[in-house]
């Protein structure tokens, strides 16, 4: 029998086992960690590598001290048994790697004993008692966690396999590895064949079992789907889940999470079948994905898009592992800048190389740039536009979200935006309503407020029509209708993004033009123009969620309410407490707040067929929140009733507050005037910034029903 090409290193004989034709497994280790990695690690020392190796040894030694603890599955996410099984797969991985590095049999014995304990228990398990209805697991409440467990566990098995007898291998494979792989594949085809991060973890787990144990059928199913048609499986996921720019449709938080199975399985494919050139597949899509997730961050944290938990950042384990793999392929020295910030490296050949660069003070800065990341498999479902000035730790970043829905983890927030400056999130996005693994908060699940608040349009910095969420918060409809990235221009004076959507609200079209203006001598500032067209009169709300302490405003007839009441009954408004309101003039309303040591002024106005009802409403979260699940975030809503309207604004950072030295500089806005006018070719918004200069955003193209399609910024000296 001829051995197929995808098995590179083989030993022993070909054998036929239950479940399909099998090949003898490759020499150990043969997955993500290979013999060349172990050789590099044994020969290296010092720097971040030494620290990372010591961390791994401490984890392995602590596991050996604790002994084998394999509890009967009982708890949902965050509970004791759930967390213990998570600790077990990480402990097995650490101990197996320590065995490879040291050759000490006590580490391989620990892994073998743990695997035997699971092999004894797993065949007796039914569905988890806290099972999720659609994707139940056995060890865990959902099969996603089971797939993660197997991805780690199969690598641990692979790294100790040469220390096992044939009888031990057979027992562990037939009573544990194969049953888990079968359950994750043919036992749950709705998940295994799904184009989704759950499916990614499942195919990676099953495929890696295939490579480690010589199961050709598992490898084939993982690559091409259960029916081997290629309509699902790893290749199809690479085709569908990433845009041509490497943007993952669920956003950077889930891109980070999905990155691990993608790059780990790809590395296993490369190790066992280099002829597949998996890292070159689809124009190097996996390498693009690694770079993209790095770039979708600010000051070390990922941009909180869709169901994102806001404290996840570039130090996450998934990116540590991906970074080393990327460097091993590209030798891109700028990746060492990210490794330096991560303060640790992967225990692999790539990690060794990155550690050496950092230790020799040869780090090259990572080149963050203003750019767009197209969304959708073909790149035609809108885009995420990033406009930058300065470095990624303290500079200015504008994020214009003109993307698709992002599947079930997506939010109803087409054409929303965020602003980062001076190391802080200034114009904010709520992210997800969830306390991950905090059992006291609904078992660590997504809270009900994730649906009633975080996903709703008013929770974001985007247009809300008639106090209803975009697409009436209908996921099926929202998935069909992405935003459009009309244009993007990056230049020395300004970066400009134009986004548009005509389907979020029936009969309402709106376009958003945002520009990051970059004067030479002072802080950058943002121009924002929202053009709305409709044949009918509507109530338009434009929220601004901001971080900081309000200093003052210039609204007329302002009322502050001693009794705060909810602003509505649904669509997120039921959670917003109205604190006060004032009348908005047609031009040059101003709100100033302080965040950290810098002031921010929001100056705004509107041009419409009716401006009698224009108001600004100040709100704070906390209504209808009996369990105190929501943060007490704040914001302001610009509200007016009209059919056609242009809502424009400028946000400028300025001045300094120093509480230690007790001084304040430039606490007042530099903006002298803000004028909008319609021209023969479109419109112009002129911003007079005093000594800094006068800047005019020139809008053109389109028509009265579609909004502008072109924009440029012109500067004049005052």
UniProtKB/TrEMBL annotation:
Residues 1-26 form the signal peptide. SUPFAM superfamilies: Chondroitin AC/alginate lyase. Its main location: periplasm. Residues 63-290 form the Alginate lyase domain. Keywords: Lyase, Periplasm, Signal. One of its GO terms (molecular function) is lyase activity. Residues 374-637 form the Heparinase II/III-like C-terminal domain. InterPro entries: Alginate_lyase_dom, Chondroitin_lyas, Hepar_II_III_C. Pfam families: Alginate_lyase, Hepar_II_III_C. It is found in: Periplasm. The keyword Signal applies. This is Alginate lyase family protein. It comes from Gilvimarinus japonicus.
């Amino acid at each position: 029998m001829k051995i197929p090409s995808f098995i590179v290193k083989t030993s022993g004989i070909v054998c036929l086992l239950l479940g399909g034709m099998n090949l003898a497994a490759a020499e150990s280790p043969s997955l993500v960690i290979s013999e060349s990695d172990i050789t590099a690690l044994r020969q290296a020392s010092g720097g971040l590598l030494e620290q990372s190796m010591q961390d791994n040894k401490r984890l392995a030694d602590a596991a050996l001290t604790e002994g084998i603890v394999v509890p009967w599955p009982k708890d949902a996410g965050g509970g004791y048994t759930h967390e213990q099984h998570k600790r077990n797969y990480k402990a097995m991985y650490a101990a197996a790697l320590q065995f490879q590095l040291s050759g000490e049999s006590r580490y391989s014995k620990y892994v073998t004993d743990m695997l035997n304990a699971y092999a004894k228990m797993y065949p007796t398990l039914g569905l988890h008692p806290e099972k999720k209805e659609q994707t139940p697991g056995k060890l865990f409440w959902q099969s996603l966690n089971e797939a993660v467990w197997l991805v780690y566990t199969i690598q641990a098995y692979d790294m100790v396999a040469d220390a096992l007898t044939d009888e031990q291998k057979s027992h562990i494979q037939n009573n544990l590895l194969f049953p888990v792989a079968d359950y994750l594949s043919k036992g749950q085809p709705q998940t295994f064949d799904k184009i989704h991060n759950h499916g990614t973890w499942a195919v990676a787990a099953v495929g890696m079992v295939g490579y480690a144990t010589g199961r050709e059928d598992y490898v084939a199913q993982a690559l091409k789907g259960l029916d081997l048609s290629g309509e699902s499986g790893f290749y199809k996921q690479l085709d569908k889940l990433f845009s041509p720019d490497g943007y993952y449709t669920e956003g950077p938080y889930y891109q980070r999470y999905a990155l691990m199975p993608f790059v780990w399985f790809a590395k296993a494919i490369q190790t066992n079948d280099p002829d597949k050139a998996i890292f070159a597949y689809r124009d190097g899509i996996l390498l693009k994905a690694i770079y993209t997730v790095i770039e979708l961050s600010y000051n070390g944290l990922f941009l909180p898009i869709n169901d994102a938990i806001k404290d996840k950042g570039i130090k996450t384990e998934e990116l540590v592992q991906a970074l080393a793999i990327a460097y091993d392929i590209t030798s891109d020295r700028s990746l060492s800048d990210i490794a330096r910030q991560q303060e640790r490296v992967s225990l692999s050949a790539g990690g060794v190389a990155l550690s050496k660069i950092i230790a020799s003070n040869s780090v090259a800065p990572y080149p963050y740039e203003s750019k767009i990341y197209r969304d959708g498999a073909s790149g035609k479902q809108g885009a995420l536009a990033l406009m930058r000035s300065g470095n990624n730790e303290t500079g200015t970043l504008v994020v214009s979200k003109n993307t698709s829905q992002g599947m079930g983890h997506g939010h109803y927030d087409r054409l929303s935006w965020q602003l980062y400056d001076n190391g802080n999130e200034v114009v904010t996005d709520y992210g997800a309503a969830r306390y991950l693994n905090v059992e006291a908060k609904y078992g660590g699940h997504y809270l009900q407020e994730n649906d009633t608040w975080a996903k709703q349009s008013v929770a974001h910095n985007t247009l809300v029509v008639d106090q209803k969420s975009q697409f009436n918060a209908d996921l099926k409809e929202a998935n069909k209708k992405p935003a459009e990235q009309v244009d993007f221009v990056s230049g020395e004076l300004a970066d400009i993004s134009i986004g548009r959507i005509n389907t979020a609200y029936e009969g309402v079209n709106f376009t958003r033009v945002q520009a990051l203006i970059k004067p030479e001598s002072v802080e950058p500032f943002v121009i924002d123009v929202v053009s709305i067209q409709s044949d009918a009169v509507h109530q338009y709300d434009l929220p601004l969620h901001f971080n900081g302490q309000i200093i003052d405003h210039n609204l007329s007839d302002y009322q502050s309410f001693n009794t705060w009441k909810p602003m509505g009954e649904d669509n997120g408004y039921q959670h917003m407490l109205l604190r006060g309101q004032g009348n908005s003039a047609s031009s040059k309303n101003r709100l100033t707040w302080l965040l950290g040591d810098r002031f921010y002024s929001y100056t705004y106005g509107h041009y419409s067929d009716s401006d009698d009802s224009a108001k600004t409403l100040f709100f704070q979260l906390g209504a209808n929140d009996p369990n105190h699940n929501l943060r007490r975030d704040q914001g302001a809503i610009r509200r007016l009733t009209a059919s056609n309207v242009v809502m424009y604004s400028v946000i400028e950072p300025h001045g300094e507050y120093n509480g230690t030295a007790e001084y304040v500089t430039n606490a007042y806005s530099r903006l002298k005037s803000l004028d909008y006018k319609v021209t023969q070719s479109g419109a112009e918004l002129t911003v007079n910034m005093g000594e800094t200069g006068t800047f005019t955003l020139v809008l053109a193209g389109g028509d009265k029903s579609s909004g502008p399609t072109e924009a440029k910024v012109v500067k004049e000296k005052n």
